[in-house]
């Protein structure tokens, strides 16, 4: 098991596959499905051995899941656990719930997620809705900021 604050377990810099190299983002994904899967799987997992390969598999298999609506279409097929090789129903349910939050908040793209997190009023509403999802802790909320490329000055990630 790795330490929660181990910098080696954070996502790779923006130059790696599946990331948005076109923006000034230190790390993160330009793929909503990747953000949802990464944020959900990161809890108590080794990033490089467990999380990153599954996120990359998702991006390769479902490139059109870069939007919430695209991710939803794939979720509805019931094949996510096969694509990311993750049998645990708890984490899969958490991914479903985070997707529902994004849908309710009208967030379809990573840019819309960044915009929502960058707007103080929308940020509060979004973070409260995400915090209501089981196992979404304050650390996970800050991690979603990081994965989306939102600069909030959050520490301890």
Q: Which properties best describe this structure?
A:
mainly alpha, 157 residues, globular, disordered N terminus, 8 helices, Endonuclease III, domain 1
Structural account:
With 157 residues, the chain is mostly helical. It has one domain (27-148): Hypothetical protein, domain 2 (Endonuclease III, domain 1), CATH 1.10.340. The protein has helices at 32-41, 47-61, 68-75, 80-83, 89-104, 110-118, 120-131, 138-148. α1 packs across α5 (89-104), α1 (32-41) packs antiparallel against α8 (138-148) and α3 (68-75) packs antiparallel against α5 (89-104). The longest helix has 16 residues, at 89-104.
Sequence-ordered SSE layout with sheet pairings:
Blueprint lengths: L31 H10 L5 H15 L6 H8 L4 H4 L5 H16 L5 H9 L1 H12 L6 H11 L9
Number of helices: 8
Kindly report the CATH topology: Endonuclease III, domain 1
What is the gyration radius calculated from CA atoms? Answer: 14 Å
Q: Approximately how much beta-strand content do the residues carry? A: under 5%
The CATH architecture comes to Orthogonal Bundle
The CATH superfamily is Hypothetical protein, domain 2
Q: What overall geometry do the principal axes of the alpha carbons give?
A: globular
Structural class: mainly alpha
Helix content: 40-55%
Q: In CATH, what is the class?
A: Mainly Alpha
Poorly predicted spans: 1-26
Count of discrete structural domains: 1
Along the chain, the helix and strand elements come as: HHHHHHHH
Largest sheet: none
Average pLDDT: 84
> What's the end-to-end separation, in Å?
17 Å
Number of strands: 0
């Amino acid at each position: 098991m790795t330490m929660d604050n181990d910098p080696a377990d954070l996502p790779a810099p923006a130059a790696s596959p599946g990331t948005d190299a076109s923006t000034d983002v230190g790390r993160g994904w330009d793929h909503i499905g990747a953000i949802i899967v990464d944020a959900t799987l990161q809890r108590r997992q080794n990033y490089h051995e467990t999380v990153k390969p599954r996120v990359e598999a998702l991006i390769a298999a479902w490139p059109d899941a870069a939007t919430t609506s695209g991710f939803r279409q794939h979720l509805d097929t019931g094949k996510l656990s096969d694509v990311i090789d993750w049998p645990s129903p708890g984490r899969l349910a958490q991914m479903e719930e985070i997707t529902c939050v994004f849908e309710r908040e009208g967030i379809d793209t990573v840019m819309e997620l960044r915009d929502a997190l960058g707007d103080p009023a929308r940020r509060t509403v979004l973070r409260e809705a995400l915090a209501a999802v089981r196992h979404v802790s304050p650390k996970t909320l800050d991690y979603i900021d990081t994965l989306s490329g939102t600069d909030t000055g959050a520490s301890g990630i």
